[in-house]
Amino acid sequence: MNYLEEYYGSYDEEGRLLSRHGQVEYLTTMKYIGKCLEGISDPGILEVGAGTGRYSVTLAKQGLRVTAVELIEHNLEILRSKLDGTEPITTIRGNALDLSQFSDDSFDLTMVLGPMYHLYTKEEKLKALSEAVRVTKPGGHILVAYCMNEPTVIQYIFGLNHLHEVMELNMLTSDWHCISEPKDVFELVRTEDIADLDAAVPVRRIKLVAADGAANYKREYIDAMDDETFAKWMEYHFVICERQDLIGASHHTLDILRKM
């Protein structure tokens, strides 16, 4: 908890999502949120781990009914500062591992777009996923975001020359899976880890999407793009973001599930 509070107390997550390269993840996630809400009149939306409200506040300002749950008080304060009191949103400080304040089958869409980044055991991840599924209506959607293993190996370990450091700290398995602890802030997974979690809950996967694809590898180039070029980049990204041969190389993935 202290590691998270320290991290989000100093890191500009809002700024990341507003940057050109961060917009790739944001626009992709918003596109699939829209698809999940198609045909539902007056949907109820829950965001677990709402952060500073990049998604929750945007959706609420569109007139959608949103409940935003966030663990870190600093983030919750920023989220609330964006509201003028007219939005149909409820904000709650809470934990993804315990959504007992909500009844079963309550929401049309449940979004877990941050908590899986900071849960370090399979038991914790499964608990968070199970809670999200429980509070979602049958036939409703659950969107779950993950940080992926291979981009960290490529960019951080090799690209930024941290190989000897992570080897000395025993932060790699023999098959190059990164080992994280709370002090490391982020937990990294592979596509098979996500599939293993999905198999344990009553859901059907609709899609597994590369939320930002190559954006973080090419962030300097993307941040320097003019509007026309960036629009073309997004056009290209949307064509390839569902290709399963590319998913594991994306920094962030979006698992789109339907409750059975």
Q: In words, what does this structure look like?
A:
The protein is built from eleven helices and seven strands. It has a seven-stranded mixed sheet with strand order 3-2-1-4-5-7-6. About 40% of the residues lie in helices and about 20% in strands. The chain has one domain (about 1-260): Rossmann fold (3-Layer(aba) Sandwich). With about 260 residues, the chain is of the alpha/beta class.
Distance between the termini: 33 Å
Number of beta strands: 7
What order do the strands of the largest sheet run in, or round the barrel if closed? Answer: 3-2-1-4-5-7-6
Strand content: 15-25%
The assigned CATH architecture is 3-Layer(aba) Sandwich
Q: Going by CATH, what is the homologous superfamily?
A: Vaccinia Virus protein VP39
Please summarize what this structure is.
By secondary structure, this protein is an alpha/beta fold. It has helices spanning 2-10, 13-18, 20-37, 56-61, 73-81, 122-134, 149-159, 163-168, 191-198, 219-223, 227-240; strands at 44-48, 65-70, 89-93, 107-112, 136-147, 203-210, 252-259.
How would you summarize the topology of this molecule?
Layout: H1 2-10, H2 13-18, H3 20-37, E1 44-48, H4 56-61, E2 65-70, H5 73-81, E3 89-93, E4 107-112, H6 122-134, E5 136-147, H7 149-159, H8 163-168, H9 191-198, E6 203-210, H10 219-223, H11 227-240, E7 252-259
Parallel strand pairs: 1-2, 1-4, 2-3, 4-5
Antiparallel strand pairs: 5-7, 6-7
